[in-house]
Amino acid sequence: MTDPVAESPPMWTKRWTFVLAAAGSAVGLGNIWKFPYMTGENGGSAFVLVYLVCIAAVGIPIMLAEVLLGRLGRRSPIETMQQLARDYGGHRLWSLVGWSGTLAGLLILSFYSVIGGWALAFVFELAAGTHLGADGAAAAGVFEDFLASPALLVMWHSLFLGFTVWVVAQGVVAGLERTVRFLMPVLLVLMLVLLGYAMTTPGFGEGFAFLFHFDARELSWNSALIAMGHAFFTLSLGMGSIMVYGAYMPRDDSIGSTVLTVAALDTAVALVAGLVIFPIVFSFSLEPGAGPGLMFITLPLAFGNIAFGQWVGIAFFVLVSFAAWTSAISLIEPAVAYLAGRFGWSRVRVAVALGLLVWVLGFGTVLSFNHWADFKLLDTFTVFDGIDFLTSAVMLPLGGLFMALFVGWVLHTERVYTEVGIPNPTWFRAWQWALRVLAPAAVAVVFVVGIVDKFA
Fold it and tell me: What pTM does this model have?
């Protein structure tokens, strides 16, 4: 059987470019914002241990499958699933996996861009010295005033999204590749600089113990489910971003070793983020499980009251902005690749059109924090909450689940073995078993429990 390869598909020029691009997609607000506060709310080191197990047992197997699909198809996720289903005797409904992931990416970007704009705004808040000498009430007041202004939120949303569209419009090599080859090394250097600073704080030992001192009594079933869900979502699985990046991966690169490198980088960034944030938090006896306010209230409060805190805070929010930017690029790329390839439109035209669509959708998130805060869909969700729940609790788990099943049960085993680059047959069979049984079962549990928990 011949590969369904598109004409002259764009390619990453080097293997490490794919690693940086995929790591950029995976490393985002989930690592630097969500992982630390989820750790704080779910028992610290016990949560970290379960998270690492879930990365190995669920995240890596599905990521391997998604990259494999991309490199086999050499097209957008929508066209890849359509073509591979035809070539391997699958039902045409498998193409819905590509459609769902592509749509989910755009919906996620509509609120991700708003929150990325917050991070960008706080670079300038710290630079202006807004938090110098502030107390808890003042730090909370700054954030509350910021959220209460739709005009400010729209301005930063527009700026952040404009940067994203500008990169994607330039193409795979001139846009995506050039950007991630600059942003990701800078991001990693900033992480190490901030880690070095955190090691000088009086709370470093307490922060380290919080992350890595294991206590089995802290384990709970609910924490394990949260860890499993986050392990899945932190690798950007189920939305087609990793699949479309895999489509640009050269044929002679090993998928297995490359995915392991990406997963290791993603996990390392999450752990280092914890080692940066918690020592600063503990140095001021602040609350580590402070929810999303940890980044925009608790940390600015600490930065405003420590030595060199203004500069450390600026570096931290530049880091967060870069991480959000590399992820945002990957969220819009599947839709751009589909429309540009399917209809022959220029990437500039497609990127701008999709950017305008996402920009308008983002107004729902902006208004969810002020004028529409009391408006509830199904008496439960703000517009922001509704889009977040639909994508993270429904579309992405189902996308990852069906990608795993498609590679595990529809594609021919011989072809998968040749393509995936796992030379040891025993390791290959272990991965295939995880893909066919373990990962789908785990994702299904997270999906069902998430739905039941929300509506029970």
Answer: 0.92
